[in-house]
Amino acid sequence: MILEALIAVTFVSALLVLLAPNEWAGRLAFALSLLPFAGSLYLWSGFDGSGNALTGGDIAFRTQIEWLEVGGRTVSWFVGLDGISLPLLVLTTFLVPLAILSAWTPIDSRQSQFYGLMLFMEANLIGVFTALDFFLWFVFWEAVLVPMYFLIGVWGGPRRKYAAIKFFVYTNAASLLMFLGFMSLVFGLGDSASSFALPEITQALAAGELDTWFGISPGRLSMVAFLAMFLGFAVKVPIVPVHTWLPDAHVEAPTPASVLLAGVLLKMGTYALLRFNFTMLPDQASALAVPIAAIAVISVIYGAMLALAQKDLKRIVAYSSVSSMGYVILGLVVFTEYGVGGATFQMVAHGLISGLMFMAVGVMYNATHTRMVGDMAGMADRMPVTVGILVAGAFGYMGLPLMAGFAGEFFIFVGSLSAPALPYAPVFTALAMFGIVIVAGYLLSAMQSTLFGPFRLETDYEVGPAPFHDVAPLAALLVAIVVLGVAPDIFFEMIRDAALPVVEGVTVDG
Amino acid sequence: MVNVLPPVTALLPVLLLGVTGLALLLVDTVSPDARSNTSMAVVSALGALASLAATVWFVVSGTGSVDTGGAITLFADAIEVDTMALFFTAIFASVTSLVVVAAHDYFHDHANPAAFYSLLMFAATGMALLAVANSLAVVFVALEMVSLPSYVLVAFLKQNRGSVEAGLKYFLVGALSSAIFLFGISLVYAATGSLLFGDVAEAVGSIDSLAGVTGIGIVMIVGGVAFKTASVPFHFWAPEAYEGAPAPASAFLSSASKAAGFVVAFQLFTEAFPVGASLAADINWVFAFGILAAVTMTLGNFAAAVQEEVKRMLAYSSIGHAGYALIGVAALSQDGGANGAVMGAAMAHLLVYGFMNTGAFLFVAMAERWGVGRTFEDYAGLARRAPVASTAMAVFMFSLAGLPPFAGFFSKYFLFMGAIDNGFLWLAGVGAVNSVVSLYYYSRVVKALFLDDPATPSALDALDVRPTALYAAVVFAAVATVLLLPGFGPVIETAQAAASALF
Which end of chain B, N or C, is less packed with Cβ atoms under 10 Å? Predict the structure, then answer.
C-alpha cells in the first residue's frame, strides 16, 4: 500500500497548498514535497523486484484491485515498480522539491495555485511511472497535461498563451493516436486478454495471440499499432520532426516548469516507448530498426545544429534536449543489454543535467532579466557559484567522464556499436557520436561569450550573487550528477536486470 | 420488497416530483403572501432530492430488476417500472435539484419565481412518467407534459425579447413535431392494433403487407424523438431556445429534457420495435439512427466550433452530445452480443452528461447573474476573481471533451468501445474525430477564463457578488463529474444490466 500512500500524500499536499495563503505557499510546498521524496527513498531501500514488470518479472510493491469491467475486460488499480520505473520515480520526487525551491524567486503572483499545480503534477507523474494497468496509466498520463498547460499559460513568458495551447494540442492529438493504436491491439487480442493490465497484454502479444480484426491480419495490425503508438510517443519525447512544440513551451514556461518539463515530462515519452513499443512489439521494432535509428540520429544532429543557431540560452538548452533524446531512442532501438539499459540510465541522467541547466539559466535570468547571449558577458564575476555549477553541468552535458551524462552515453554507444538487431550499427553510432562534438561546440561558445571575460550588462541595477535557495538546488543536482557518474551501478544494476527481458524478447534474423 | 408493499409504490419517485409541483402551485395560489423565493426553492429542492433518494433506494434494492422478478407493471400494463426507468429518473431528479438550487440565486429579484419552480417540477414529473411509460398513449401524454412547461420555462423572462422569441420558436417546432409524432403513433396503431409496447412488438413480427405503414409510422416517431433529443433534423430550435432561455432553464432542457427523449427512444426501440423483428419486417431504423447520429454529432461539433457566445457554443455542443448518445440505438444489431453494453454505455454517458452539462450551463447562469456578458472575450480573466467556479467550469469543459482525468472520458470511451464491439467501427470513428474537434472549442473557454487578460481592469468588479446557492450547485456538479471517474464501475454495471434486460 506504500505506493498508494505516496500518490495520496502528494494529492493531499497539492490540496493543502492550494488552500494555503500565498505568503508561505512556497515554503509549505517545499516541506510537503520532501514527503514523496522520502517515500521514494524508502521504496528504493526496500526494492525487491527483479526482471521486467511487463514480461513476467517480480513486481515490487504491487497492488491490484479491480476497478470496473468493460466489454469482458477488467480495468484495475494496478501499480508496482520494477528496475525501469523505480529510477524514474526517484528522479521525479527528487526534482520536484528542487524545482519548487527554484520557484521562490521568480514566482511572485498566485503562489498557492502555482505550487498546488506543481504538486498535483507530481502526483500524476508518480502515477504514470507506477501504473501497470493501461487505463490507470492513461488517466495519469493525460492528467499531467492539465497542470502543465496552466503552469505555462498563466505564469509563462510573453507568448505564453500560444506556447501553452500548442503544447496542449500537440500532446493531446498525440495521445489520441497512441490510444487508438493501443486499443487496436486490445481488440485484436479479443478474448485472449481478460484485462487491461500491461503485463497480461504484453505476455499475450508475446505468445502470438493477436487475431485478425475487421479483416486486418495480425501482422499488419501490430505494425499499424506500433506506428500509431510510436508517432504518439514521438511527439512527447520529442523526436524530429514533431519537436516544434518543445522550444516554444520551454522558452515561455517559468523556470520550475521548464525543469520538470525537460527533466520528467520528456521521459514520459521515452519511458512509454520502452514500455509499449519496444517491450510489447519487439519484432515490429526490430523490423523498423533502420528507419528508427535514422530518425534518432537525425534528432541528435539536427537538434544540436538548431541549438548551435540559437541566441537565447533557454532555447539552446531546449534544443539540446531534442538532441539528447535522440541518443535515448538510438539506445532503445539497438536492442542490446547496454543499449536499452543505457537509454533508461540516460533518461535519469538527462533529467538531472537538463534540470540543472534550465535552473541555472533561470537563476541568471532572475538577476539579469535577459537570456540573450549577446546581452551579457562576464557573469562569472558576479555570480561565481551559479556560473561554476552551470559550467560543471554543461561539461556533464558534453559527456565528461565521472558525470552521469558520460555514463549514459557511454552505455548507449557500447550497446549500439555491437547491435545484432540493427544493420549498419557502427555507422549510426559514429554519426550519433559526432553530435557530441556539436554539443561541445555550442555550449562552449555560448558560455564563452556570456560567462567569461569582463562583466557587461545593460542594466541600471546591481547584479550580485544569487540567494541561497536559488543555488542550493543547483548544488544538489550537481552532487547527484557526480554520484551517478562515479557509481552508475546504484541504478544501472536494477535497470539492466529489467532491460534484459526486453532484449531477449527480440528475435534477430541471421 | 415487491411482496411487502403494493406495486404502486414503485411509482414513488414520479409521485414525489408531481406532489411537490402541486404543493408549490397550491401555496402560490392559495396564499401568495406566504411564498418567498427561498422557501419555494427549498421545497422544490427537497422534493427533487426525496425523489432522487427514492430512486437510488429502488435501484439498490433491485426494484423492477431481473433479479427480483422483472419489471413491475401497473394500470393494465400502461406503466412499467424497470431499472432503466429508475436510472433515468435518477438523472432527471439530480438535474432538477441542481437547477432549482441555482435558480434560487438566478431569480433573486424576480417578481414571481414560484411559477418557475412548479413548472420545473411538472416537467420533471412528465420526464419520470416518460421513463416508466409502456404504452404509446402514455408516451404521448407524458411527452406533452414535458413540452408544455418547457415552452413556458424558455419564455419565462417575459420582458426579454430573446427569451420570448425563443419560447415561440420552440413552441412552433414543438407543436409540429408533436403532431408528427402523434400521427406516427396512429399509423403504428393502425398497422399493429395495439398501443402497448409488448403487443406492438409481437405484431411487428407478423405484419407482412402493413410493413410500409408501420415503417412510415416509425419514421415519424423517430422524428419526434429527434425533436426531444435536439438531434438532426429537428435540432434547429435548440440553439435559439437554449440561448434565449434563462440559463437554469437551458441547463434543465439540455440535460434532463434531452435524456427524456433518449429514454423514450431506448424503450421504444427495444420493447415496441425490437431490432430483430424490425429488420425481419424490412424496417431498418438502425441505419436511419446511424445516419442521424453521425450527422448530428458532426453538425453539432462543427457548428459549436465557430460560435462566439459561450451559451450558444454549449447549445451546439449539446446537439453534438445528442449525436454521441444516439449511438446507443444506432449501434444495435440483430444478434449483436454487445447490444446491452452499447445502450448501457449511452445511458451512463447521459448520466455523466447530466452533471457536466448542467454544471456548464449553471456557470453561464452565474456569468449572467454577474452580468459580465456572453462572448468568450467577456469571460476573459474570470478565474482571477472566481477561481473555484472557474476551476469547476474547466472540469466541465475537459470532461465534455472527454479528457481522461474526468468522468466524460470513461462514458465516451465505453460508448465507442461498445459500438466497435457490435461491429460499428465507422460510428466510433466519426465519434472520435468529433471528440478531437470538440477539444478545440471547449478549451477556448478554459483559455478565456484562465489565460486571457480582462478587457478592462474594472471588468471584474461585478464578480464581487457571490451567489452562494449557484456556487454550491456548480461546485457540486464538478465534484460529481470528478467522482464519477473512480465511481464509474457501479454506474456502468447498473446501466448495462438495465439495458441488457430489454434485449
Answer: N
| Helix B161-192 vs helix B211-229: crossing angle, to nearest 10 | 160
CA angle B122, B127, B132 (to 5 degrees): 125
Residue linked to cell 447573474: B369
Helices (H), A196-265: 198-206, 218-236, 245-252, 255-260
Q: How far apart are CA B447 and CA B468, in angstroms?
A: 25
For B59-95, how does the pLDDT look when each residue is reduced to its tens digit (9 = 90+)?
A: 888 877 777 777 888 888 888 888 899 999 999 999 9
Q: Which amino acid, residue B175?
A: A
- The single-letter DSSP state of residue A190 is G
Q: pLDDT tens, A282-313?
A: 888 888 989 999 999 999 999 999 988 888 88
Could you give the angle at the alpha carbon of A425 between the alpha carbons of A424 and A428, nearest 5°? 90
Q: Is B372 helix (H, G, I), strand (E, B) or coil?
A: coil
A238 prior amide bond cis, ω within 30: yes
Could you tell me which of A282, A75, A285, A248 has the C-alpha nearest to residue A171?
Answer: A248
Q: How far apart are CA A311 and CA A342, in angstroms?
A: 31
Helix extents (H) in A195-336 = 198-206, 218-236, 245-252, 255-260, 266-272, 279-280, 282-287, 289-308, 313-333
Q: What is the structure's pLDDT at B35? A: 67
Looking at the complex, report in whole angstroms how far the Cα of residue A337 sits from the nearest Cα belonging to chain B. Answer: 35
Find the residue in A nearest to B436 (Cα). A173
* Distance separating alpha carbons of residues B70 and B82, to the nearest angstrom: 7
For the question of an ipTM over 0.85, the answer is no
Cβ–Cβ below 8 Å for A71 and B409: no
B385 CB-near residues (< 8 Å, 6+ apart)? B460, B463, B464
Residue pointed to by grid coordinates 528507419? A291
A57 and chain B in contact, CB less than 8 A = no
Q: What is the CA radius of gyration of chain B?
A: 21
Contact at CB, B418 and A71, closer than 8 angstroms: yes
Q: How far is CA A245 from the centre of its chain?
A: 15
Phi/psi of residue B386, nearest 5 degrees: -130, 65
Query: Which of B398, B405, B436 is opposite residue A176, by nearest beta carbon?
Result: B436
**What single letter denotes the amino acid at residue A346?**
Q
* Cell numbers found for residue B153: 420555462
First vs last Cα of chain A: how many Å apart?
47
Q: Does B488 touch chain A (CB under 8 A)?
A: yes
- Check CB contact of A216 with chain B, cutoff 8 Å: no
Contact B398, B404 (CB under 8 A): no
| Angstrom distance (rounded) from CA A448 to CA A446 | 5
B138-155 pLDDT, tens digit per residue, is 999 999 999 999 999 999
- What's residue B351's pLDDT? 94
Tell me the one-letter amino acid at A365: Y
B285 near B222, Cβ under 8 Å?
A: yes
Terminal CA-CA length for chain B: 25
Tell me which DSSP letter residue A401 carries. Answer: T
For residue A434, what are the CA distances in angstroms to A106, A300, A426, A447?
A: 37, 9, 12, 20
| Cell, residue A458 | 545593460
Tell whether A1 is within 8 A of chain B (Cβ). Answer: no
Residue in B with minimal Cα distance to A66: B489
Of B263, B228, B274, nearest to B14 (Cα)? B263
**A chain contacts of residue B341, beta-carbon cutoff 8 Å:** 71
**pLDDT at residue B2 in the model:** 46
Q: A465 CB contacts (<8 Å, ≥6 apart)?
A: A382, A383, A384, A385, A386, A471
Are residues B318 and B300 in contact, defined by beta-carbon separation less than 8 angstroms? yes
**Cβ of residue B492 closer than 8 Å to a chain A Cβ:** yes
**Cβ pair A57, A82 in contact under 8 A:** yes
Distance separating alpha carbons of residues B100 and B249, to the nearest angstrom: 10
